[in-house]
Every structure is written in structure tokens, then in C-alpha cells.
Amino acid sequence: MNEPKKNPALTRALNLLSKRSYSEKRLREKLSEKDLELRDIDAAVVRLKDLKFLDDARFAQSLSREMAEFRHFGPRRIYMELIKKGIPKDLARETTDNIEYSFDESLEEVLKKYLKKCLNVPREKIFNRALGYMVRRGFDFGSSRDKLLLYLKNPET
């Protein structure tokens, strides 16, 4: 009969996590929006970490893999997206540095797809536009420039 007092923050957190993953920071923000007590939020976060339902490192790895493989973002963009999602900067940097993915292939794919959309753009404007696009996607300036120059010289590859 001595049932422990239920934690409304834990209940809410489990409901949120059943729909998608969150970083610890973002989960705390979502719980704070519901005017839950800070001690309940802290207790919920500790419990979720103990149960391994909340793990920033695993969340960062999963999200970075998804952004690299499916959204074809470069490492810099992935780093910035991880920061936006509440991942600490040192963990975001470590995760980005350890991504096991060939960004060179992704760079080429994104470049070809972008250039197909630029068929009516004057040739002298394509270089700057495409280069800016690649850098905004998170690819290195030098690699983007080299790949773009190579492709513009020999577009059938």
C-alpha cells in the first residue's frame, strides 16, 4: 500500500521519449515548458540515464549518421546541427570527428544534384553559387572548390 509518489516529470519525459530521441538539454527544456518542478526534472533525468533511455553520446552518433547518410550534410553542418539539438560542444566535435562515412562521395552527389538545377544559370555564376551551396551544406571549402572545378572541366564524370 505504500506506493511511492509518482514523478510527473518522469511520466512526461517517457511520453516524449516514446515518440523520438532527445538530448538531455532539450529534454530538460521541454519538461521546463510544462512548469514541472526542477527537483522532479532532475530526478527524472537521473532515472532515465540509469535506464539508458537518455544518452547524449548515443543520440549524437545516431543523429550524425542520419544527417551524413540521408541528408548528405558535411561535417561542419553536422557539428552545428548537433549543437542546436543541445549536444555539448566537446561531444559534438568528438562525434563529428569520428563519423565513419565517406563525405567525398556525398559531396559529389550533392554537387551533381545541385548543378542539375542550375541548367539555366549563366556559367560564370554557377561556380560561386555552387561553391556557396556546398559550404552551407557543411563541406570543406577547399574540397568543394576542387570537386567543383574538376566537375566543371569534365561534366560527364
Instruction: Please report which band the strand proportion falls in: under 5%, 5-15%, 15-25%, 25-35%, 35-45% or over 45%.
Output: under 5%
Total number of beta strands: 0
Number of helical segments with 4 or more residues: 9
Radius of gyration: 21 Å
Unreliably modeled segments: none
How would the global form be characterised?
Answer: elongated
Q: Can you walk me through this structure?
A:
The chain is mostly helical and 157 residues long. It is 69% helix and 0% strand. It has three domains: 8-50, Arc Repressor Mutant, subunit A (Orthogonal Bundle), CATH 1.10.10; 56-97, Arc Repressor Mutant, subunit A (Orthogonal Bundle); 103-153. It has helices at residues 8-19, 24-32, 38-50, 56-69, 75-84, 89-97, 103-117, 123-136, 141-153. Helix 4 (56-69) crosses helix 5 (75-84), helix 7 packs across helix 8 and helix 8 packs antiparallel against helix 9 (141-153). The longest helix is centred in the last third of the chain and has 15 residues, at 103-117. It is elongated, with a radius of gyration of 21 Å. The model has no long low-confidence stretch (mean pLDDT 90).
Question: Summarize this, please?
Answer:
The chain is mostly helical and 157 residues long. The chain has 9 helices and no strands.
Blueprint (SSEs and pairs):
Blueprint: H1 8-19, H2 24-32, H3 38-50, H4 56-69, H5 75-84, H6 89-97, H7 103-117, H8 123-136, H9 141-153
Salient structural properties:
single chain; mainly alpha; 3 domains
